[in-house]
Structure formats: C-alpha cells, structure tokens
Amino acid sequence: MYLKELKIKNWQCIEETDIKFENLMLFIGQSNSGKSSIMSAIMFFLKYRNFRSRDLRNGTNFLSIEGSFYNYYKQSFQVADMTITGKNIHLKVTKTYDGDIYYFVFYNNIWNRITEEEYQSITEHVSILFIPSFSEKEQTEFFILSLLKILEKRKINQPKALNKIVATFNELQSEYTSRGLYRNLLFEIFGVLAQYSRDTGHSVLDNTLILFEEPELYLHPQKQKELFFNICVLTKLGTQIYVATHSNNFINLHMYKSICIVRKSENSGSKVFQFKGYLFSGDEIKNFNMNYWINPDRSELFFAKKVILVEGQTDKIVLGYLSKKLDIYKYDYSILECGSKSLIPQFIKLLNVFKIPYVAVYDKDNHLWRTPEEIENSNQKNRIIENSIKKDIGSCIMFENDIEEEIYQENRERKNYKNKPFYALKTVTNKEFIIPEKLEEKIRFIFK
Q: Which SUPFAM superfamilies is this protein grouped with (predicted)?
C-alpha cells in the first residue's frame, strides 16, 4: 500500500493541515517550522511510534489524523465483520486529552470503530524505515537490521555489496566512530539499493516508506547530489521516500509536485504549502526544465524568506554588491537570475502557488538604439510580467532602461554592452562611485 493523503489536526505545532503525497516528498522550511512534527504524525498514524503527552497541541483536548492509502495490490482486509477492499483504504486515529486512542476504518460511507490490533493489521502492510538527523551507531544499526528484515520478508537475497556494508558496520562498532562515518555508511547503502534496483528494473524495497531527516548532514555537496540521485531512482521504481531537508541539493525545480513547504505562524500553527496541478504547458515545460540544468542553484528559491527575480548576471551581481554597501542586504533573501525577461513569469507562477514573497526586477528595454518592433516586443513582455504579479504575495520594479543606464545615468549605446557584468561591477566598486538617488530608492524597495 502507498500513502496518498494525510489530514492532521491538533498534533504538536500543527493546528490543521492536509498533505497529498508523491512517492518522493521533500519537506522544506525554516528551522522549527514543523517538519519533524509531520514526520512524527506519519509514524504515529502508521503505528510506528507511541503517543506522547506533548503530541497533543497546546490548548486543545482532541487530535485526529486521517489518511488514505492506494491499495496497489488490491488486498482485502478482514476487520470485525467487515471485508475492506478496493483501490483506496481510509483510516483514522483520534485521541482526547484524558481519554483512550480510538481507531477507525471507512466502510459503507461511514467511519467504523475498530480495535488497535485490527488497525495495525492494515498499517503493517506499509514497511517503514526511519533515519533521524542524529544518526549514530544505534540508529544506523537499527536501520540496517530493519532493512535486512524487509529484504528477508520479500525473499530477496541481500546484494553482495550490502553484505559488505554489514561487515563494515560490524567493524565500525569495535571502536569509536564519528557520526560522519555512520552517515557515509547510509550513503553507501542507498547507492547499493539504487544500483540493485536499476539492474532488476524494480525497487528492491518495493512499497517501503523511508522517512529521512536531513540526509545532507556530514556529506559534502557532491555526495549530497549523488544521494539525491539514488533516492530518485528508488522512488521512480516504487519506493516512497519522505525527506526533510535544508539543502537545495535535494530540490529540483521541475519536481515541484514533490515539494512541500512547511511554514509556522503564531495564530494557526504549522501548515503545508504544495501544488499538485500543472503550472506549465508546451514549450514552457522544456524551458523550465532547462532552467534547472543551466543553473541548479535556482532551487534555493524554496528556502528563501523573499525572492528577488532578476533577468541576468549583471543585475544579480550589482544588486548584491550595492545592497551590502547600503547595509540593507539580507541573507535570508535570494537573488535569482532567471536567464531572461521571458522566463521571469514562469518563476512568478511558481512563487505564486507556493506563496513565497518576491519582487520581480526587470528592464524597460526602450533604449534609443532599439527599433520600434523591438520596443513593442519589450513592452509586451513587461506587461506579461506585471500581469503575472499577485499583489498579496509579490511586487515588481522596472529599471530605466536597464541597470547599466541607472548606474551610469546616461543613455547607453549597443556597443557598450560587451562584458557588461565585469564593467558594471568595476564601476560600482570604484571608491569614488556614488549610488544615484533613483537607483538607491529602487534597491531599498527591492530589499525592504
């Protein structure tokens, strides 16, 4: 069975939120935003952990977690006098402050109460592996033993490389070993599982659910990217892997359906923001996917408190430098180079659906040397940007006609634009350079 959806109410820092699952889920957000609360709610719902008094949200006396599963193998479950079957299975667990935990299954259009044992007879068909962020000897040992049990249950002979990993782990236990080495061992395990799955054409873990907190810990960037690749291999072949991460090496722009941003507010607790629809069509899809390969660092937009969308390299370099010179630069803001004016609306679409604050910075491009046709084409693109803005989420500001003309305070010739990032930075870093008043106003608006 595969987990499809979860509705969480009054669990830890969560007042109420819904999650729709892909095989790969990427939970991201600021520290203390509620990512771990979501992980623990999933584990409690699947009977992987017990209830603890602090699980009930402060000030409330009732919690509920309701979920649905995709019954891939069309199994039938006998609970009480009911035979639960079909493609979708719905379960619910509730708890009052001073009462018992109650379990329910949805049957004949109503919630039917069942025993804990009957509830578990259904959830046990989802095998779970949990890797906490503080992986050390005990956690790594537990993960390996659980993994071997799952492979044995599925009557799969351990890959030779996995046997080698077990032997290596046994050697590590004989002396003090750093957390980094244990994390590296987990990295090697995922590599073995992914390669074995690719060779056989299906995931060696089948419908196992892996919860992985901060997989990037103790791994350098190159290994983070390789681990994420192996995770993607396993999820494409059927394994469910839910990752809580702070690293943009685990985020792909074109995999936005897997991204789940967790935000916490004082009034309504932690909530999940995700988008399961289709943002782009036709050439937009190709262009957006190409954006990732041209500059994978653009994935950092999902971690930003505010995103500053700019056309190109010159804008990014100059705005970054001058905002620091004005002492208004913010490290939790991201300046994102979109590649061209035409692509800014695609990023605006993405930021709109995830409700990430932004400001779109673009050039008017009505230079004296442009033809009437070029000016009209530019104005049309400007209007598209302006019409894409959702005013409760983002804003926009326009350079006249571009940042170079703002810097030099003069009309520029076409020939002046060769190596423009270098010459623009050379100009603004000159000790005698004074930021023009209008440009300073725009920079302060951008970073407000």
A: P-loop containing nucleoside triphosphate hydrolases
